[in-house]
Design goal:
Keywords: Cell inner membrane, Cell membrane, Membrane, Sugar transport, Transmembrane, Transmembrane helix, Transport. The protein is of the alpha+beta class and 523 residues long. The protein has 4 domains: 17-78; 113-121 and 228-262, no CATH class; 124-226, Periplasmic binding protein-like II; 282-517, MetI-like (MetI-like fold). The protein is built from 17 helices and 14 strands. It has helices at 17-47, 51-69, 80-101, 113-122, 190-195, 197-201, 273-280, 282-317, 325-337, 340-350, 357-366, 376-404, 408-416, 421-449, 452-458, 478-488, 494-517; strands at 124-126, 132-139, 142-149, 160-163, 173-178, 186-187, 204-206, 212-217, 220-226, 228-230, 236-238, 244-248, 253-255, 261-262. A 7-stranded mixed barrel has the order 2-3-4-5-7-8-9. The protein has a 5-stranded antiparallel β-sheet with strand order 10-11-12-13-14, with helices on one face. It starts with 16 loop residues before the first helix and ends in a 6-residue tail after the last helix.
Length: 523
């Protein structure tokens, strides 16, 4: 007979309560660990001057504590991981990129002003007229440094110095004191000096008066003096020649009295300067507009060619008199199963101007050897050929599915009226599948608009556009052009690249909104 806790005289919740309490406290402990870890990241990023990342994790930790801390928000706990991931990997990078586009962030303006100032203050220079030749002496199992001034009186009359044993060097510093003669023991040769070179270069010899000597050659030490001194107004004085470095807050550099900018610099806000350069600087505007037009042409022609090839093949596969449809269908879809980067690299070898199979065939048949990678128009043609090969199976699958949904009665009626295959294709099939295909065609256009892999693996953007002040090629798309500015340019202008990336984002958003506003059409 079935019995319950109540029939036994026991509380109904007693058998479940310990497990529920254990689970609840485990969840609370886990949440506490996650929140504390997030706060630690907030503090760590703040101390390193990365306030945007600190703010990101602060918002993430606060949201985590609120959503999982209130029972009224229990229904939101299931979607919180997805929203948090979207915020960290989509929204934050977007905001960060837009923020960079309003700055001069680049390889020359990479560090914060505090770190740039610290780097200048850490620079040293060798004092003129004071240098010591040195020699290693072995005393039993210990090695000492013996130094003798090259010229002059040395340091405060001390022409000869002897160090403590090398084994007593702590934190890279080793004390030296004046002496009248070399230490007793065996003088070691140049071979031993070379063997201990790394150890000697890491040493700083400290004299009784506080002067520090550093290794400046394979056989000499010299005093290394601080080169710059910070002034109360934030400027730096060059102790070597007396010059003054003034911080330029508009451009993010220390500037000499003659106007020369010294690197490294620090990022500063430049407003709309990066966007203005894109359209106002002729050395950037010309290549940018050329690449902009080619990007639209490339994406548009790719969609047209892949649709044309896919539609024709799909129509042929629906031909009733065609035998072995399954075999043909499998063979035509095979390019879709091969990873794109493998196909691209194979085509790169086939289009090789000297040893490629395509030029070999063309030379034997027509006596020509096209320069696929050096002629701009041939390089663009090659890109369209390869991308059509990579994209037509996708269009083939779409067209096959849509064609099969067309009622057969329409074709039978066309046959009664005397319509042939071409009439059926252009009067029945194409009009009926074109409207349902439109959103997918826009999506394909947006994909090819940012087809970075094809450009990077096949041409790398080459051949280059002559006269451009930024790395720009005739086969570059906007996305590959942005990549080259950010990571392949000698200056690595992240601010300018971020401005172009922002424009690309706005264009893609426009295409996405157009796609979403298209009416849902059913066949």
């Amino acid at each position: 007979m079935y019995t319950t806790n109540a029939s036994r005289g026991l509380p109904r919740h007693r058998s479940r309560y310990p497990a529920e309490r254990y689970t609840r406290w485990t969840m609370r402990a886990l949440m506490a660990v996650l929140v504390l870890s997030t706060l630690w990241l907030v503090v760590a990023f703040h101390l390193r001057g990365q306030w945007m990342f600190a703010l990101l994790f602060l918002v993430l930790g606060a949201s985590l504590a609120i959503v999982f801390g209130k029972r009224t928000l229990m229904s939101h706990r299931y979607v919180f991981p997805a929203l948090a991931g979207m915020g960290v990997f989509v929204i934050f990078p977007l905001i960060y990129t837009v923020g960079i586009s309003f700055s001069n962030y680049s390889s020359s303006n990479l560090l914060s002003e505090e770190r740039v100032r610290a780097q200048f203050l850490e620079q040293t220079y060798q004092a003129e007229g004071v240098a010591f030749d040195f020699q290693l002496y072995r005393e039993g199992d210990r090695i000492r440094l013996y130094l003798e001034a090259k010229s002059g009186a040395g340091l405060e009359g001390a022409r000869r110095l002897i160090s403590e044993p090398l084994g007593k060097a702590g934190k890279g510093k080793l004390a030296v004191r004046p002496t009248d003669a070399p230490p007793p023991g065996e003088a070691l040769g140049l071979r031993e000096v070379i063997a201990n070179r790394d150890r000697l270069q890491a040493l700083t010899l400290e004299t009784p008066d506080g002067t520090e000597l550093s290794m400046v050659g394979l056989r000499s030490f010299a005093p290394m003096l601080p080169r710059y001194q910070e002034n109360s107004d934030g400027s730096l004085t060059d102790l070597r020649d007396g010059g003054v470095l003034t911080p330029d807050q508009e451009n993010g550099f220390f500037v000499t009295e003659s106007g020369e900018r010294l690197t490294p610099g620090w990022p500063v806000a430049v407003g709309l300067d990066n966007y203005t350069r894109i359209f106002a600087d002729p050395d950037i505007r010309g290549p940018f507009l050329q690449i902009f037009v080619w990007t639209f042409v490339f994406a548009g022609l790719t969609v047209v060619f892949t649709l044309a090839v896919g539609f024709v093949l799909a129509s042929l596969l629906q031909w009733d008199q065609l035998k072995g449809k399954a075999i043909y269908r499998t063979l035509l879809i095979l390019p879709y199963a091969v990873p794109a980067f493998i196909s691209i690299l194979i085509f790169k070898g086939m289009f090789n101007q000297n040893y490629g199979e395509i030029n070999l065939i063309l030379e034997n048949l027509f006596g020509i050897r096209p320069e696929w990678f050096t002629d701009p128009w041939l390089a663009r043609t090659m890109l369209l050929i390869v991308n059509t090969w990579l994209g037509y199976p996708y269009m083939l699958l779409l067209c096959m599915g849509l064609i099969q949904s067309i009622p057969r009665d329409l074709y039978e009626a066309s046959a009664v009226d005397g319509g042939g295959p071409l009439v059926n294709m252009f009067r029945i099939t194409l009009p009926l599948i074109l409207k349902p295909l439109t959103p997918l065609l826009i999506a394909a256009f947006a994909f090819n608009f940012n087809n970075f892999v094809l450009i990077a693996l096949l041409t790398g953007g080459s051949p280059d556009i002559l006269g451009a002040s930024t790395p720009a090629g005739t086969t570059d798309l906007l996305v590959s052009y942005t990549y080259r500015i950010a990571f392949q340019d000698a200056g690595q202008n992240f601010g300018l690249a971020a401005a172009i990336a922002t424009l690309i984002f706005l264009l893609v958003v426009g295409l996405s909104l157009l796609n979403l506003r298209l009416p849902k059409v059913k066949v």
